[in-house]
Backbone:
């Protein structure tokens, strides 16, 4: 039977199911503590496999296209945060203060890897440059996102990013990634040839973190703190933010004289935010009771960016060869 076009992808459906499960049956007490330990292992395994999969040769070969990578990284780690701050007067009346902080956290995150490359390929862009830019963004995000969170998010929340949080980032995310890179000569080829191995760990670890985060959030009363009007406003805010960045990257690539293939890479790599990196980073940086609200804007933005960029990729692909 043909899958209905209006039906979201399986991962989105799984995310919705996990949020619904956490809303009805949140884990608590000793169960939550045990689940937390299992999630630690899953997240570490996720970054280990990403480290083993990432090609150092591709990154090195892409350094020659530094102008393209600079535009992508500036969009990801400068334009997004600036927009988040500049739009504050317009966003705060629409969102709760906690959701606005979640939007700011979204703005500090690195770009996606898989979807950036997939959309660039679909649109007949510079795929090699997309691999380099998206991979570099993901790696730099381990360092830059906590710094940006410390500069932008925590001063407005009254909290702070402590040295302990940075050490947790190193321990849970960076060290497994580096170990994967070191073992890449022996296991990297097998992982690349068997992508089905990475997918369950990738998606499963995110689902576990989301379930744990929303379980804690439900216990803290998240659905009483987030009215339906705020959720609708959050969708509108996500569309506005994505639209501004898409327009900015498109204009910048044209004014800087990039060819069409490079423009496509800049537009797709510079406009994405990574759910796969954002959820584990939020889990390390924020207290358990705050994670649900912090990742809610990211979850909505993730789905919106996929739908919008799919349409744009098809329009690019339809251009004459």
Residues:
């Amino acid at each position: 039977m043909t899958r209905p076009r209006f039906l979201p992808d399986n991962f989105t459906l799984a995310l919705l199911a996990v949020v619904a499960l956490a809303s009805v049956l949140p884990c608590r007490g000793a169960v939550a503590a045990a689940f937390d330990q299992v999630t630690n292992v899953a997240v570490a395994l996720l970054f280990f496999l990403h480290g083993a999969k990432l090609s150092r040769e591709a990154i090195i070969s892409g350094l020659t296209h530094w102008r393209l990578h600079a535009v992508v990284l500036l969009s990801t780690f400068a334009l997004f945060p600036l927009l988040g701050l500049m739009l504050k007067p317009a966003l705060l009346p629409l969102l709760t203060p906690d959701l606005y902080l979640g939007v700011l956290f979204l703005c500090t995150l690195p770009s996606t890897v898989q979807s950036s490359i997939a959309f660039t390929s679909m649109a007949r862009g510079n795929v090699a440059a997309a691999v380099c830019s998206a991979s570099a963004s993901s790696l730099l995000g381990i360092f830059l996102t906590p710094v940006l969170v410390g500069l932008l998010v925590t001063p407005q929340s009254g909290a702070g990013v402590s040295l302990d949080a940075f050490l947790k980032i190193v321990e849970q995310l960076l060290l497994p990634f580096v170990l994967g890179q070191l073992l890449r000569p022996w296991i990297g080829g097998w992982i690349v040839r068997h992508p089905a191995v990475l997918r369950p760990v990738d998606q499963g670890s995110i689902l576990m973190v989301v379930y744990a985060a929303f379980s804690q959030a439900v216990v803290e009363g998240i659905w009483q703190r987030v009215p339906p009007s705020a959720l609708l406003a959050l969708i509108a805010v996500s569309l506005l933010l994505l639209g501004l960045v898409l327009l900015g990257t498109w204009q910048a690539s044209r004014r800087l004289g990039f060819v069409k293939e490079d423009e496509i890479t800049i537009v797709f790599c510079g406009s994405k935010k990574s759910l796969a990196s954002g959820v584990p980073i939020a889990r390390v940086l924020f207290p358990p009771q705050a994670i649900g609200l912090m990742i809610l804007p990211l979850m909505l933005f993730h789905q919106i960016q996929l739908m919008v960029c799919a349409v744009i990729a098809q329009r690019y692909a339809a251009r004459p060869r």
